[in-house]
Amino acid sequence: MYSEVVMDHFANPRNVGVIENPDGVGQVGNAKCGDIMKIYLKIENETIVDVKFQTFGCAAAIASSSMATEMIKGKSVDEALAITNKAVLEALQGLPPAKIHCSLLAEEAIHAAIMDYRLKTGGSVDNIRKCDGCCNACDIEHDHVV
To answer: Which one is catalytic: 58, 102, 134, 135?
Structure first.
């Protein structure tokens, strides 16, 4: 059912926790399944130097959060914004169709945390997709696998 990569990130999640005085925080949730993701960012010179997450959800939600944080750590803010749920899915070597929304939540949590950072620092939020955290529930054009 789940790949070895998913099971590893579920059993041994990376970057779990809270960052004190974060530069950006994003929380998204999916009311349909109950998954809630919260991502904390520490940013220096537009580079994500630390990232932590807290996720309430299934194995796929935890694995997606863990993988997404690994993918953005050390990246520029703009590089992190370019990471899609498809990239998270590929890095996890796939998820069952009923769990693909977990990778979308991970992408949306990253965007929400970066939006929070940009709003706090007076940066532009024009290139950030503004989702409400629930797959298929907004009018934003997505480049997602759903």
So the answer is: 102
Which whole-number Å values give the CA distances from 20 to 43, 51, 93, 102, in the listed order? 13, 11, 32, 26
CATH of domain 4-121: 3.90.1010.10
Each domain of the chain, given as residue ranges in start order, spans 4-121
108-135 pLDDT per residue, tens = 999 999 999 999 998 877 777 655 444 4
**What is the separation of C-alpha 139 from the centre of its chain, rounded to a whole number of angstroms?**
19
How many Å apart are CA 145 and CA 86, to the nearest integer? Answer: 6
Dist CA 88 CA 81 (whole Å): 13
Instruction: Mark whether 33 is an active-site residue.
Output: yes
Give pLDDT tens digits for 16-69: 999 999 999 999 986 666 889 999 999 999 999 999 999 999 999 999 999 999
Q: If we measure between CA atoms, which residue out of 129, 116, 16, 112 comes closest to residue 66?
A: 16
> Of 33, 131, 134, 138, which residue is the catalytic one?
33
Is 138 annotated in the active site? no
Euclidean distance between CA atoms 121 and 118, whole angstroms: 5
